[in-house]
TrEMBL record:
<dbReference type="Pfam" id="PF12833">
    <property type="entry name" value="HTH_18"/>
</dbReference>
<keyword id="KW-0805">Transcription regulation</keyword>
<dbReference type="Pfam" id="PF02311">
    <property type="entry name" value="AraC_binding"/>
</dbReference>
<protein>
    <submittedName>
        <fullName>AraC family transcriptional regulator</fullName>
    </submittedName>
</protein>
<dbReference type="InterPro" id="IPR003313">
    <property type="entry name" value="AraC-bd"/>
</dbReference>
<dbReference type="InterPro" id="IPR018060">
    <property type="entry name" value="HTH_AraC"/>
</dbReference>
<keyword id="KW-0804">Transcription</keyword>
<feature type="domain" description="HTH araC/xylS-type">
    <location>
        <begin position="188"/>
        <end position="286"/>
    </location>
</feature>
<dbReference type="InterPro" id="IPR009057">
    <property type="entry name" value="Homeodomain-like_sf"/>
</dbReference>
<keyword id="KW-0238">DNA-binding</keyword>
<dbReference type="InterPro" id="IPR037923">
    <property type="entry name" value="HTH-like"/>
</dbReference>
Length: 312
């Protein structure tokens, strides 16, 4: 495992992207990138990629970073229907590779809110704690890339935002639990339990009973730590999942409402509009130009002029 770091005061440069759906027995071709990096994020099924001497199984929510000057290839076939997002970018600042022995000090430094941070830090492989946020960024990138924007910077800034989001999720997963505050650790367990059980019928009482809290005490914990009530947090997690389902599936609004255990479709739509400023249908229609690549996962796409003219 290696860790990649670069400054993003100037945005990463977008190159190409897509969502790929595998046919039966598809394997990633053998490639060595010259200067571009590729991020792969699993959506469905498993893809098998080797980079250098390391073999990776990319499952839904897993992030794999493929780096330049290193051979990578598929070492086993994937099942039909396996799907993943892929995104190529170039760096505009000097890249730095860190080893496992260096990473702890680096993460601690990045967690210091008193120090200005202007870099991203990504391991070659890790799992997302909240795939929904990253999928939304990816949908935005695909939509903008396939729209007639007057400047390529629209996609480049979104790529940089995605990289920052991935860095934040990596840091969150790396951060060790507090040793001096058992209640705080248990509170994070509550948050994770709600996230894992997002498709179930969750109430404040159910969460409180599961952790041997009273509902009032649980709500005080949420107010203290997050500045919101327990119910508002539960609804926010369910709505994040709803956004993921809206842009990644063709399920109807009614089906999504049922999956998330809202009491009825109208209540779900009203809550969604109140929190997002859009109806579920309007949200889904916001990203129509996110083409799926079933036969065009092609790393040999030529660079556009704005990239070839830069000193990469």
């Amino acid at each position: 495992m290696i860790y990649f770091k670069t400054n993003v005061s100037s945005p990463l440069l977008y190159f190409k992207s897509g969502q790929f759906i595998c046919e039966e027995n598809w394997q990633h071709n053998s490639f060595i990138f010259d200067k571009d990096y590729e991020i792969i994020i699993g959506v469905k099924g498993t893809i098998y990629i080797q980079q250098g001497e390391e073999k990776y199984e990319v499952n839904p929510g897993d992030v794999l970073l493929l780096v330049p000057k290193t051979l990578h290839f598929g070492y086993a076939p994937s099942k039909a229907g396996t799907s993943f997002y892929w995104l190529h970018f170039f760096c505009t600042s000097e890249e730095k590779v860190l080893t496992k022995s260096e990473i702890y000090e680096e993460v601690v430094s990045m967690m210091d809110k008193d120090k200005p941070q202007d870099s991203i830090l990504l391991p070659t492989f890790f799992s997302l704690t909240d795939a929904g946020k990253s999928f939304i960024y990816l949908k935005q990138i695909l939509h903008i890339a396939n729209s007639q924007y007057y400047t390529h910077l629209a996609t480049s800034y979104l790529v940089s935002e995605l990289a920052i989001e991935l860095t934040q999720q990596f840091i969150n997963s790396f951060k060790p639990p507090s040793k001096k505050d058992v209640v705080n650790k248990k509170f994070f367990d509550v948050l994770e339990w709600i996230r894992v059980n997002v498709l179930k019928d969750i109430s404040v009482e159910i969460v409180a009973n599961n952790f041997n809290f009273t509902p009032d005490y649980l709500t005080r914990l949420f107010k203290k730590n997050l500045g919101m009530s327990t119910l508002k947090y539960i609804n926010s997690i369910k709505l994040n999942k709803a956004k993921e389902l809206l842009i990644n599936t063709d399920k109807s609004i009614k089906e999504i409402s049922y999956m998330l255990c809202f009491k009825d479709e109208k209540y779900f739509m009203k809550l969604f509009k109140k929190c997002e400023g859009l109806t579920p249908s309007q949200y889904r229609d916001a990203y129509p130009k996110t083409y799926i690549n079933t036969d065009s996962y092609d790393p040999d796409i030529p660079m556009p002029d704005y990239l070839s003219s830069n000193k990469l």
